[in-house]
Amino acid sequence: MRVLAYADNRSWAAQLASAADALGGDAAVFVPGRELADDAAKLYSEVFFSGLGPFEPVSYSAAFSEAARSFKPDLALLPCTNKGRSIAGLYSSAAGIRSATDVISLSARAGDSSITVRRLVYGGRAEAEFLMSAPAAVCVVQGSYPERGPRGGPGQVHEVPAPDPASSVDFKPKRREGVQPEEAEVVVVAGRGIRSKEDLELVKELARALGGAWSVTRPLAADQGWADSWVGISGLVVSPKLYIGVGVSGQPHHMMGARGSKIIVAINKDPGAPIFEECDYGIVGDLYAVVPELLKLLGGKDRGL
Amino acid sequence: MKILVAVKPTFDIGQLKFEKDGTPMLDACPVSLGEADRCALEEAMRIKERLGATVAAATVGSSEAHYKAIRDSYAMGADEGYLVKADDPWKLDALSVASAIARVAAATGPYDLVLTGSGAGDTHASVIGPMIAGILGIPLIAGVDRLEVRGPGVVAGTCKLEDGSYTYEAKTPAVVTVTSEANAPRIPNLRAILRSKGMPIREMSAGELGIDLRRLEPLSVRKYEIKRKRIIYKAEDQKGAAEASAKLLAALRSEGVLS
Ligand SMILES: Cc1cc2nc3c(=O)[nH]c(=O)nc-3n(C[C@H](O)[C@H](O)[C@H](O)COP(=O)(O)OP(=O)(O)OC[C@H]3O[C@@H](n4cnc5c(N)ncnc54)[C@H](O)[C@@H]3O)c2cc1C
Ligand SMILES: Nc1ncnc2c1ncn2[C@@H]1O[C@H](COP(=O)(O)O)[C@@H](O)[C@H]1O
């Protein structure tokens, strides 16, 4: 099976390389900038790159389609991120092929043109198995496949001309202070149990004491504006060793972003909160009592709350 | 201006229950016009109120809930409603749904804007809007928290993506997908609801639109099994909090996730 991946960073290039391995056959990757091409060449036998500017879905998808015209994949593999979903939608409609998102595993029998796809459905409450026939496009959930190491010799690198964007773009990169949740070994997430922006310090302090990163649930970012990203199906998917939800209820759309964590901890005052169904360890109690105790024990400064 | 909003009835997945064998009980799950779709309708209404516009709502599927989705769109202020007939609509392939909406747009337009939700609460594929843009060959702004008509034929949208905030400006016609944070959708008053019941829903068949609606039949669907330890400590007061915290940290150390 010929597989063409789309990756906009090294981690995705390596994860999708593993996914492609699982299907066997030849794998190539498209990357949207020259900087990534050399790293990607260590993982794939062919690399296509295009000197694209900040993300704009139509031109990105057009460049990816151009690479596909040249490589003629049976399957396109994309990250299940907001950007990956947009490219998958544009690319599959342009190519007139089927697509599936939220895919957690893929398999194909040698010489067979159909692919068995397992994907999350109903906001991650259920999983379904589908048979798709090639050609098709699928978006793979972060953490479903491990990052693969380099293969033998470097792959061939081809340049694809960058198409014009369909919209003008003004990009403001995220403020990147401290460890980022996507890369951290510990992620502490604040939910609506946190009452004010000032109180968010409690969660940031716990993250610092554990040497990890902090994030929030969507309402805190999108409604309150206390952070510029969040964990969940419509935000970041994290896979740390330790996830701690503080005042997080554990709705499925949020938990889909945390399931890849090795250990899940919940601190919530409502014993009926759904997160207690989906955690390894939980404390039923007031976060304003529990978090300061944790900080004390971890040797953080006593906030005397 | 003329605006088309694609809407769909959406399962409240928080309330989804499963049979013993893990089959989802969709028939018993509450279903209503999607959250993000309401926000898309609200954006259309705000443009209508500020600049004048005709707003049409379209859905693909002929369950009772699909008719209700159009009626709810009328109650929010839509002027026209289109329903593409399809039995068993929950299994429709995304590309078929997008083609149907694109054909409705071509048959009843031209439209300046086609709006969709950025991701439905149940499927959350977030591909229908991009597919419509791909089929119509027009610009796409996906995942918009703030939508603005900047002048005749120019729309702008601000989106929060993985690595930061993007503001796009595009010439119309364009497809814009709207998040459920974009606004607080209006709640229709009783008069609007009563009026919506009398408004005609224009039904169309796939044949009439010249498309073939395909379905994706899953081999199996089962409940996602959560395999977690669920060890719970109770912290009723400050002393309890101290004890529970100590137990938690000890457990995390023995798991090897804390040094
Ligand atoms: C299509 C769609 C996509 C979505 N995508 C995402 C996503 O990507 N990420 C995301 O996070 N959400 C997402 N959501 C929203 C999601 O469904 C929930 O609404 C959200 O995750 C809830 O956030 P929360 O847990 O912070 O708030 P709530 O659900 O309000 O929970 C707050 C919790 O805090 C507890 N609490 C209150 N006070 C205290 C205290 N003093 N001490 C201890 N506990 C306390 C309460 O018991 C409660 O359980 C999405 C929704 C939709 C429809
Ligand atoms: N059957 C349908 N009929 C009309 N619009 C739909 C349908 N399915 C999805 N949509 C639109 O596409 C958006 C995104 O859906 P999805 O790609 O499934 O996440 C929804 O919020 C709707 O606006």
What is the topological layout?
The complex is a heterodimer of chains A (305) and B (259).
Chain A: E1 3-6, H1 10-23, E2 27-31, H2 34-41, E3 46-49, H3 57-71, E4 75-79, H4 82-95, E5 98-108, E6 114-121, E7 126-133, E8 136-140, E9 156-159, E10 168-173, E11 186-190, H5 200-209, E12 213-216, H6 218-223, E13 242-246, H7 252-255, E14 263-268, E15 281-284, H8 287-297
Parallel strand pairs in A: 1-2, 1-4, 2-3, 3-9, 4-8, 5-8, 11-12, 11-13, 13-14, 14-15
Antiparallel strand pairs in A: 5-6, 6-7
Chain B: E1 2-6, E2 9-11, E3 31-33, H1 35-51, E4 54-60, H2 64-76, E5 80-84, H3 94-108, E6 113-117, H4 128-136, E7 140-151, E8 154-161, E9 164-171, E10 174-178, H5 190-198, E11 202-204, H6 206-209, E12 220-223, E13 231-234, H7 238-255
Parallel strand pairs in B: 1-4, 1-6, 4-5, 5-11, 6-10, 7-10
Antiparallel strand pairs in B: 2-3, 7-8, 8-9
The complex binds flavin-adenine dinucleotide and adenosine monophosphate.
Give the tags.
heterodimer, A: 305 residues, alpha/beta, nine-stranded mixed sheet, five-stranded parallel sheet, 27% helix, elongated, disordered C terminus, B: 259 residues, Rossmann fold, 2 domains, two-stranded antiparallel ribbon, 7 helices, 13 strands, 28% strand, binds flavin-adenine dinucleotide, binds adenosine monophosphate
